[in-house]
Specification:
Blueprint: E1 3-6, H1 9-15, H2 24-36, E2 47-50, H3 81-87, E3 97-101, H4 110-119, H5 121-126, E4 128-132, H6 144-159, E5 166-167, H7 177-186, E6 190-193, H8 202-209, E7 214-217, H9 222-229, E8 232-235, H10 240-252, H11 254-267, H12 273-284, H13 298-301, E9 309-313, H14 320-333, H15 335-340, E10 343-348, H16 353-362, E11 372-375, E12 380-386, E13 396-400, H17 402-408, H18 414-425, E14 429-432, E15 435-438, E16 440-442, E17 452-456, H19 465-474, E18 479-484, E19 489-494, H20 499-510, E20 517-521, H21 529-533, E21 538-543, H22 552-555, E22 572-576, H23 580-589
Parallel strand pairs: 1-2, 3-4, 3-6, 4-5, 6-7, 7-8, 9-10, 9-20, 10-11, 20-21, 21-22
Antiparallel strand pairs: 11-12, 12-13, 14-15, 16-17, 17-19, 18-19
Family: Belongs to the glycosyltransferase 1 family.
Pfam families: Glycos_transf_1 (PF00534), S6PP (PF05116)
InterPro entries: Glyco_trans_1, SPP-like_dom, SPS, SPS_C
């Protein structure tokens, strides 16, 4: 991501910091290097942006003046029904109301609030306490956790003899919550949230919207909310005396109360939806376009641009002899369609372009039987184009797709990533007694600008890919890693590079509908095998003993394949063997060939 939007700084520093892909201190260092124009050596972390969520203000009613004392703060004829349901609990309903709105969960710390109120006689004489703890029918029907909290609250009310001073109604409607805030504000009370930790605290915003000052926990987002609104006091939720003292101070000091109320109403617009949208759009406008322009000579010369159907051969689980036979048989059964120009072929593989060329030469096949080659596990796309005016095999040159290269370059670690991987490879060893032997080595011969290849000498001791991916995320290196060639090679490619993404790139660039694409795969393959199966394209799974048995790449999978791929989809079919009859039947079934 270019940016990640969070509600508060606390969310960034204490919640996002738990993830492998983000670390506050490293993110600051990288930002500082970028500002100085220094090299980050391929490391990148998304920019964290704080935009508080918006709140709807349409239902707010400010229908009274708070500057002077009123003879009757709660005239019965004008009261919303919920007011009388709360006021019936109080011996003296004229006292300021301390309001708490929270479900009866232990982390909301309601019992500490009741203890603070019950143990502070001056506070009890000054104010009433209202606890809105959700809706309930009977305590016996509540879940054990909520029932335990509510039972503790009722026990404390009895222990401190708070009858007539504490309200705890059983029912209220969601639409009545604003009326409850208004009641507390009309009595010149306060809203209190002393949760042990609060991730954001929308109730604090709602209280401020209704002109109600707050007492809030100092743990979590309320700290930042109060910095913006400046409409209350923060307390340690573990300190009952501090809670009681803050409540008494706010309610007994009329000037402080009025100042907090006015500040809240003046600054609350910063939590409105229009303000949220304005901040969001201003951040989005700072992002530059990432999609490269598409153009160049390849636009006119590449034959793939005129195809109606594309057959992608992406079979990794067979030896080279069987792969050549699969290619020959597929071309044989589609000879008519290929000659008419309606059907083209793409070879999608982890091989390099040199290995592909050697494979085709050894099989006596011309590169031009294919419209494109997806090589190096999706990090390179080549088109076999004639370099002269006369078609001849000696004049066929594989032309790399420069637009695709520009696309996948995004956040590529380059040399910094290579150095980190070389260092990591030395730590992956096979232990035999006291002897340690390195099993992963850099493979420059099979590497390219956007594919770092490593040779594996003992696949049985390979670490899971998720461990390598985790290590790279921690180091803020953004890339894809995969095992291929029966786990004898490790390839690391850009985050936007993979065989499945390269296929979709080809379809978008050359205007080919994905349902008109058929992908041929084996029963297993490289570690990106699963990505090739699902989607809008058609998939043909070639089954049979010619498939190399699934290696450690897939045997360590902790979930069934059907959990991530809908194998019963009508877009996926399986056939036994790869004879011309088998291939013809399969391609007819998926609509590439006519019956």
């Amino acid at each position: 991501s270019e940016i990640v939007i969070a509600s508060t700084r606390q969310e960034i520093e204490e919640q996002w910091n738990l993830y492998d892909g983000f670390e506050v201190i490293l993110a600051r260092k990288l930002r500082a290097r970028v500002k100085r124009g220094a090299n980050c050596y391929g490391r990148y972390m998304p920019r964290m942006v704080i935009i508080p969520p918006g709140v709807e203000f349409g239902h707010i009613i400010h229908d009274f003046e708070m500057d002077g004392e009123e003879e009757n703060p709660c005239p019965a004829s004008e009261d919303p029904p919920i007011w009388s349901q709360i006021m019936r609990f109080f011996t003296n309903p004229r006292k300021p109301m301390i309001l708490a709105v929270a479900r009866p969960y232990p982390e909301k710390n309601i019992t500490s609030l009741v203890k603070a109120f019950g143990e502070c006689r001056p506070l009890r004489e000054l104010a009433n306490l209202t606890l809105i703890m959700g809706n309930r029918e009977a305590i016996s029907k509540m879940n054990n956790m909520s029932a335990a909290v509510l039972t503790s609250v009722l026990t404390l009310i009895d222990e401190y003899d708070l009858y007539g001073q504490v309200a705890y109604p059983k029912h209220h409607k969601h639409s009545e919550v604003p009326d409850i805030y208004r009641l507390a504000a009309r009595t010149k009370g306060a809203f209190v949230n002393v949760a042990y930790f609060e991730q954001f605290g929308v109730t604090l915003i709602e209280a401020a919207m209704n002109g109600l000052p707050i007492i809030a926990t100092k743990n979590g987002a309320p700290v930042e909310i109060n910095q913006v609104l400046n409409n209350g006091l923060l307390v340690d939720p573990h300190d009952q005396n501090a809670i009681a003292d803050a409540l008494y101070k706010l309610l007994s000091d009329k000037q402080l109360w009025s100042r907090c109320r006015e500040n809240g109403l003046k600054n609350i617009h910063q939590f409105s939806w229009p303000e949220h949208c304005k901040n969001y759009l201003s951040r989005i406008l700072t992002l530059g376009p990432r999609s490269p322009a598409i153009g160049g000579k390849q636009e006119q010369k590449a034959p793939i641009s005129g195809r109606k159907h594309i057959i992608v051969i992406s079979v990794d689980s067979v030896n080279k002899e069987d792969l050549v036979r699969i290619i020959r048989n597929t071309i044989e059964v589609t000879r008519t369609e290929k000659m008419s120009g309606s059907t083209g072929f793409v070879l999608s593989t982890s091989l390099t372009i040199s290995e592909i060329r050697s494979l085709l030469v050894s099989a006596g096949m011309l590169p031009t039987v294919f419209d494109a080659f997806i090589c190096n596990s999706g990090s390179n796309i080549y088109y076999p184009l004639y370099s002269g005016d006369t078609p001849s095999s000696s004049q066929v040159t594989p032309a790399i797709d420069q637009n695709h290269q520009a696309h996948i370059e995004y956040r590529w670690g380059g040399e910094g990533l290579r150095k980190y991987l070389v260092k990591w490879a030395t730590s992956v060893v096979e232990r035999k007694g006291r002897i340690e032997r390195q099993i992963i080595f850099e493979d420059p011969e099979h590497s390219s600008t956007y594919c770092l290849a490593f040779r594996v000498v003992n696949p049985n001791h390979l670490p899971p890919l998720k461990e390598l991916r985790k290590l790279m995320r921690i180091q803020s290196l953004r890339c894809n890693a995969l095992y291929n060639h029966s786990a004898t090679r490790l390839s690391v490619v850009p985050i936007h590079a993979s065989r499945s993404q390269a296929l979709r790139y080809l379809c978008i660039r050359w205007g080919i509908e994905l349902p008109n694409v058929a992908v041929l795969v084996g029963e297993s393959g490289d570690s990106d095998y699963e990505e090739l199966l699902g989607g809008l394209h058609r998939t043909v799974i070639l089954k049979g003993e010619f498939n190399i048995p699934a290696n450690r790449i897939h045997t360590v999978r902790r979930y069934p394949l059907q959990d991530v791929v809908a194998l019963d989809s009508s877009n996926i079919i399986g056939i036994e063997g790869y004879s011309t009859d088998d291939m013809k039947s399969a391609l007819q079934q998926i609509g590439v060939l006519t019956q």
